[in-house]
From TrEMBL:
Coiled coil: none annotated. Part of the ABC transporter FtsEX involved in cellular division. Important for assembly or stability of the septal ring. It comes from Aequorivita sublithincola (strain DSM 14238 / LMG 21431 / ACAM 643 / 9-3). This is Cell division ATP-binding protein FtsE. GO terms for biological process: cell division. One of its GO terms (molecular function) is transmembrane transporter activity. GO terms for cellular component: plasma membrane. Keywords: ATP-binding, Cell cycle, Cell division, Nucleotide-binding. It holds the Pfam family ABC_tran.
Length: 227
């Protein structure tokens, strides 16, 4: 039986008082890799922000990793985000800390106390993204692709039930985008559920998967054409 880690029913997504998406009914099951596509301004980012608690869900039903988005309280948001891994377009790494210390900072902030456990977890996630040898470097010493790998490692630290990747290849050249995509797909094969917003249609062709599209205030599933 499939397990939904994300389910919205008849939801409306607002950016302040502006209706961005209406009548949204979407399900993402455990283990799936799902794309969210659509032109700029069609609501992809607003949809993502609603999922990680940056925008409130004002209408309809929404459940994500065991949290009810419609009744989500301010002090629930940090706990919700611990069960989500969020990867942004612009990496959001701390430039004054090494890769290792960026990850350690997140673990400390999310309540980890055991030093040996923290070291073990940092090594584990850096190995998954093939960045273990760069742990002592600072973000500004890394390429864009390497910084995004670190950002993906950071998203994996608390064993998230769902990874939300918001245009993770948006600032990368085509070759680096493919490398980052390979990392995400490998993580998905290992059991992580991923919802990835993108406008890079080349990636969809190269790595076909379930696809949701934002268009004309709606989100709907796109049926992939098989060649």
């Amino acid at each position: 039986m499939s397990q939904a880690v994300l389910e919205l029913k008849n939801a409306a997504i607002y950016q302040t008082d502006n209706l961005v998406l209406s009548d949204v009914s979407v399900t993402v099951d455990k283990g799936e890799f799902v794309y969210l596509i659509g032109k700029t301004g069609t609501g992809k980012s607003s949809f993502m922000k609603t999922l990680y608690g940056d925008l409130p869900l004002k209408e309809g039903e929404g459940h994500i990793v065991g949290y009810n988005l419609a009744t989500l309280k301010e002090n629930d948001i940090p706990f919700l985000r611990r069960k989500l891994g969020v990867v942004f377009q612009d990496f959001k790494l701390l430039n004054d800390r090494t890769v290792h210390d960026n990850l350690r900072f997140v673990l400390t902030a999310t309540g980890w106390k055991d030093k040996a456990g923290m070291e073990s977890k940092i090594n584990e996630v850096l190995s998954k993204v093939d960045m273990k040898t760069k742990a002592f470097k600072y973000p500004y010493q890394l390429s864009g692709g390497e910084q995004q790998r670190v950002a993906i490692a950071r998203a994996l630290l608390n064993d998230p039930e769902l990874i939300l990747a918001d245009e993770p290849t948006g600032n990368l050249d085509p070759q680096t985008s493919v490398e980052v995509m390979e990392v995400l797909r490998e993580i998905n094969k290992n059991g992580n559920t991923i919802l990835m917003a993108t406008h890079d249609y080349a990636l969809l062709l190269k790595y076909p998967s379930k696809t949701l599209k934002c268009d004309e205030n709606q989100i709907f599933e796109v049926v992939q054409k098989t060649v």
